[in-house]
Amino acid sequence: MKEFLPVLGMIIGVALLIIVVGVLGGGNLFGPEKGGDMEKAKILMIVAPENFRDEEYQKPREILEQAGAEIVVASKGTVEAKGLLGVQVKVDKDISQVSVDDYQAIVFIGGPGSSIYFDDQTALNLAKSADEKGKIVGAICIAPSILANAGILSGKKATAFSSEKDNLVAKGAQFTSESVTTDGKIVTGNGPEAAEEFGKKLVEILKL
Fold this sequence. Notes:
21% strand; alpha/beta; Rossmann fold; three-stranded mixed beta sheet; 6 helices
């Protein structure tokens, strides 16, 4: 037995060295950490080519990225989208190139420009497909009308900017007038003041 003790000691020493190097190097020896690259949630944010609401894009994006999510921006017919208050955003994909399967959540950003998607069949199909596939679907300000027009708010609780109340109700939604409303995997917000809460709710449902 004694002749095996040096070998055993050497094995234990090597194992401890590997563990110490892994910890000091910031690695995780027991698999990927939550929020790490292997588990990073991929979120699609859809903005209008112009006149989307800056805060409704910037604040949720900041909150989602801080939680470890990867953001992809889509729009229609442009490589750079411009916000109502002047922010310029690089567009990664045209909405015609989007595959819902690539994302954990699809988020429509509001502002007056987002009305371009109210009757846009590509945008409506994205919302409908995301809902059917069990993805998280978000919309803020007037953008919940996109979800309503896609037929996914029928029987659901939802909020939106006050101008969209009649449309949501007409499409079968239960309008709440809340800042942010969640029903299942659908998250809606009512305007710029709700942007931070909207972002935090998305993080909560994504479990980031």
